[in-house]
# Entry
Amino acid sequence: MTPPASSLVPPRILVVDDEPQIHRFLGPALAASGYEPMRAEDAASGLQLAATRSPAAVLLDLGLPDLDGQDVIPRLRAFTAVPIIVLSARDGETAKVDALDAGADDFVEKPFALAELLARLRAALRRAAAASGQHAPAPLIRVGELEMDFAARVARVAGAPLKLTPREWDLLAALARAGAGRVVTQRQLLNAVWGQAHGENSQYLRVYIGHLRQKLGSAATLIRTEPGVGYRLGFPE
Amino acid sequence: MSADPATGPDTRPDPDALLALAAREGHGRLKVFLGASPGVGKTYEMLTEARRRALGGADVVVGLAETHGRAETAAQLAGLEVLPRARLPHRGQMLEEFDLDRALARHPAILVLDELPHSNAPGSRHPKRWQDVEELRAAGIEVWTAMNVQHLESLSEAVARITGVRVTETVPDHVLTGADAVELIDIPPAELLERMRQGKVYRPDQAARALKGFFREGNLAALREMALRRTAERVDADLTGYMRANAIAGPWPAGDRVMVLVGSDTTAEGVVRHARRIADALRAPLVALHVEQPGKPGGDPGAALRLAEALGAETETVVETDLPRAILAAARSRNATHLVIGRSRPRLWRRLTGRTLSAVLVRRASDFALHLVPNPTAAGRPRPVPERRRLPAWMAWASVPALVLAATAVGHAIDERVAEGSLGMVYLAATVAAAVSFGALHGLAAAILSFLVWNFLFIEPRYTLTIDGPQEILGAVVFGSVALLLAGTAGRLERTAFTAQARVFGLRRLVEFSRRLGAPMDRAALLALIAEEAQRVAGCSCCVLMPMSGEDLPGLGLPRARRADDTELIIRAAAPAAAEPDEASLAAARWAYAKGRASGWGTDTLPATAWQFRPLPAAQGVAGLVGLRFAERSEPLDTERQRALDALLDQAAIALERIELMEERALAAARTEADALRTTLLTSLGHDLRTPLTSIRGSLETLRTMGEALPPAARADLILAAEEETARLARFASNILDMVRLESGQVALRREEVDLPSALEAAVERAEHATGRQVQRRLGPHLPAASLDPVLLDQILANLLDNALKFSGAAGHVAILARREGAGVAIVVEDDGPGIPREDLGRVLDPFYRASRTDRVAAGSGLGLSIANGLARAMGGQITAESPVRDERGTRITVRFP
# Structure
């Protein structure tokens, strides 16, 4: 529960939710975790705060009185790459997929566990920091036991190289580049590996993920399935 | 029809003389006491008369009398000799039966034997009692008997249709027509019903049941008319109303039917109206017939036909050159009894030769009543109804020698002046005339006769039938060939014309059918129409069979359900209504349904069955079957009918499919709507449950994991938040329970006098305390004390205030008003929030309605209004919603209690 290291100023976290009760506990919880919470009860003030106060991350509720949260994401993305974690009370995977496709980084479902929300938040902030630090893709990515050497196009598990087909490599690379713990939707994966035309063939994806897991052996659990949504590599601790 | 009119007491012939007569003939008389229904007093009347005769010294014996436990009737038996009944053993039981042998041995002058339609017990000599009666009469015994009209064989069909009760015990019509006397026992239905209620007919428990079933006034009236018709052609005016009220399905099969000929001139409409009046007077259905004559100039009969349709007549158009024949054929096929035609003013020569339409009809329509209707609107000279020159058959044949004779006369006159070969031309002319006028056979006959006469009289050597010289032979050969060719051509032409006419007829019928199919109707009506039309085209009983579907399972309104091995085929429609395939035929039907091919009579499959089944093709497989019951040993359908029937079935199948698609679409729409509602409901519930749960969980988790790091005030607030949210969750849960209770109608009311100001104040204070906001109060003076359930009222107010506070937002204003409205009271809750979209105002009181998107508004607000509405209704009140209130904003909810 330590605040992110090496920051003198506590990172600002913008919470956009119309339920005052949510702010009531998230505010103290974020403050106690070393963040500076900012409160917005509708989309308009949320967007304004995001533009003027440059938060480090946005927690966004999808059900807002003035604008659908779904439509808030592209507006945010228009001017900032800030990590967006969606707080969703909605059933169904489509809402999550839509939000992720629209540019959200992650989601938690209400009622969520506070510990999980904070872990996702930390992971998102880390990814953002890594991404802002270097614009060129990292030549080497490590997630748990898995090591991806992009220069050599080799993946190793505990030092032992894996025999991957080009597709399998592409798939694993897409997951790894998204950042450890970040959800990548099926559509995003399909587009990245197979191209636009295959955006709907989730069947391919299941087969290749199956192969990958077999080849990863002891590291197979690194590829985590978000049912109906997509996959993520590794999990926020 | 009964041969004898009702025999009144005064007109009854001298019995002794009749007895003597009967004895001379060696055949006993039969007297039938005819009633319209049980309970009219037949037995009573019969026994009373028997007693009178016995007192007068006649040898009267009662063979059997059913008193049905009626005391009045039983009393009439006193003093009469009653034959003991025979006892027949049957399956371990003793059955009592009329003792025919004892009656024959006793040989009374008059034997009274009740219940003519009775079926004898097994083991009796005759299966039916009327056969006993025949034997008794053959033995010279006069028999008095009683029966109800519905037992008459020819009426059982109609009776079944009217009353829904099928009579199994029937008496052949000839028994009644052969009766020497028929006495009608007639009481009005109302009186009979009264007697039934008094328990004079049946025991009270049976009577109650009977009054609900068979003994409905309509049934009785219909039966009574049958009895009246059977005994005398009398009419009970009371009946008209009942029959008009459509309680009786279909036309009266044994009754009259009026057919009116609709011409194409201006007088046609007058004739139609006149025919309607005649049909009304006869209470008979009306058919309007228009005959289109090819080659004759004709106006448009459309207006007259439309009028006929408007007057409730069925219309039919036929194409036929021979008007009288067309009329008679149509009248016979429609079972018309009355023909109505306009009185035309034909040309003088037609009148002189007796070839007017009316004259022809009078000659040929001997089995119809013919009505010649004056032309009231005959402005100017009406076009005479056209008719074709057509001679009777014998005249046609007589014309052949006459023509030849005329040719001979001409030939004789010009003989010597022209070459003898040219005389052949004269005979050729006669032959052609005969062939064209009368047909192929006549032409052939004329040709042969002409040739013989020509040869005999004019060809050398004359006065012999021999031919000399090549010129004569050539002439004879040419003459013969030309004559034969002509005759054949004429005959072919006639046949072609006939076929074409039949085809046009079929097409017209089809067009008419498809027009009727186009009318919006439900499936049952369509199936009935198909059966009816198939009956008309095929000229036999028809039914429509469909597989059983899910909707049949409740078993309501099913005509007849039959067990089947794989497919349940059900008779959905039949024409006539009683047409029903037997078990063996149904096996053929199942085959036809499974294979999609015709089966049964006249086909390759199960040809021994009485019915033929043809499939109604559908997009997938077979939609149903049309069953046709052809008469025994009837000819297979001719090609034209076959074709017409096929076309009919195709049309029917398409119409059926259309209706099915429509039904499916309606069902799908309903399902979609239900799905959408369910989704909304689930989303609503999910949102309303999750939001407080998130707060509670988050607050508690924050306290647990980082409580030490929080200032005491924040800790206290988190505990309070968890508490409040728990309360909110509890309220939501109770709202759901209320909703369920309201939906299932389980709201118990405890009304008491409620002091409105204090009740409102309490509710407002609680709402203010919960939200920390102010609610404006504007209570009118002189509020009446209302008799309401205080708990429910409080719930209503809490819901309305909660709703208004939520919808108006944190900065909004909420006001509550109460005022007197007449004897009642109105409570108004108003806010200045965004209001309710106009299109949603109507649904705002529905369960789980939420303005705009389901999860954009504050949690828990989905149920409040509809619960308040339900509670108010439970107390006899009403809630209305208005929006916007002012400046395009605000919502006003008004609760009114009477």
In short: Residues 67 and 111 of chain A are 22 Å apart (CA to CA). Residues 114-133 of chain A form the longest helix (20 residues).
